[in-house]
Amino acid sequence: MQSLLHDQRVGIITPYEYAATITEVCQSNLKEVKGAFPLKNNTRAAINWLSLEEQEWRYLLSANADSSIDLWDTNSGEGINEGEKITRLIHVPRKSAHTYGVLCIQWYPRDTGMFVTSSFDHTVKVWDTNEFSPVHEFNVDQRVYSIDVLESATVAVGLDQLFIRLLDLRSAASAHTLSGHKGKTLSVKWHPLHTNVLASGGYDGEVRIWDIRRSKSCLCRLDMLKTADGDDITEFNYVKHIRIPSVKAHLGPVNGLTWDSSGTLLYSAGNDDKVRVWDMTLPSPPPTNLLINFGPLTRNKYPQTIPLLLNHRHESNSPMLFFPSDNGDVYGFRAADGKLICRLHRSSSTKFTAQQDRTTAMVRGSPFLSKYIHGTANGALVMWAPMFDLPTATQVFGDLVHDDDEEYELISTVEAEQKRLCLRQEAKRKGIELG
């Protein structure tokens, strides 16, 4: 640690490299913050989705299975110290906005003045945050499984149907449909850089890449048999590739998708208990399966959208992928090679079955803080943050005799210095200047 501090001070490593190294250590020491969120008063309904705005990294939206919606202020009390709980600012009662469970919720990417919700009641609703009420409603005539909101005010909607619907928030109309999946669409994700590119995962085990500007919108389907070591050197035949039934990304429904921040890698999860990584940079389609093995611990048997979560870009030297397993644990893998880095296990999970305690929603906190918030099927919100057990003065100095006044004073001074450093770190995190 001292050599790391020295290298940062003299400029051998950049501040970003220093922060990334510290963050990697923190991410391997994530622990549950007890009592960060208050227990729900009226319901134990599952939390279907979470969305944290990325302007202040402060306001958290939660969509609940009993059709209620909550807005939380994650900066209230920080939820770190004992007795400090994160405040729920607004609660929308059940059946007051949606008649069935709210399955997805997402902030508009540019600001916090608007967010979008979807439900099994066949509606997608646009909300005004100031009034905290819906201002427009899209009736899509099908159950909605997944949505993703683009900065250009386009919403991709995965439906219980053979097509994906694109909604235009500016014209308040359905702008386009993308047909191709042979069953319901469980997951949709826009490309982080190219706003015309969309990835979708379906109940048919397919992952499709779309270009919404083209008349033939489907660019390709991901094939789990197409690898970098493959001997298939034949020329790409678009018609054959699109129509051949054996092209699959997973041997089961695909219910999780996420891009990396540069859009060069796509991560997919399916009900075959597999997580696959796809190289999207090849000049000719289809993309290749990188064959990264994430081990035997991943369990994914529920055909509903699950959150795949990557940590922030530049937050660590190697990206981490968080996967919510059906056994109730969340596994943090090194995305480059699938090595298990951390396992997030709730101490209170013994009170519930694995089905009740499994993680159904996840969001990441502000960059370089290594904070994560999870929602579970039993209605609990859980915060994870790095925590370290600081050694006591006795552990540092060994068998010093406490009866000796000089040595006892030395130990007391060290303990006081530890407390002072902890208070200074807490004040720095809250933005308080200390003299």
TrEMBL record:
Annotated Gene Ontology cellular component terms: Cul4A-RING E3 ubiquitin ligase complex; nucleotide-excision repair complex
The domain of life for this entry's organism is: Eukaryota
Q: Return the protein name.
A: Uncharacterized protein
Presence of the UniProt keyword DNA repair in the record: yes
Q: Which InterPro entries match?
A: Rad28/ERCC8/Ckn1/ATCSA-1, WD40/YVTN_repeat-like_dom_sf, WD40_PAC1, WD40_repeat_CS, WD40_repeat_dom_sf, WD40_rpt
Q: Which organism is it from?
A: Scheffersomyces spartinae
TM region positions: none
Keyword annotations for this protein, in alphabetical order, are: DNA damage, DNA repair, Repeat, WD repeat
Q: Where are the WD repeats?
A: 58-82, 95-137, 178-213, 247-280
Q: What lineage does the source organism belong to?
A: Eukaryota, Fungi, Dikarya, Ascomycota, Saccharomycotina
Is Hydrolase there in the keyword field? no
Q: Which GO terms describe its biological process?
A: proteasome-mediated ubiquitin-dependent protein catabolic process; protein polyubiquitination; transcription-coupled nucleotide-excision repair
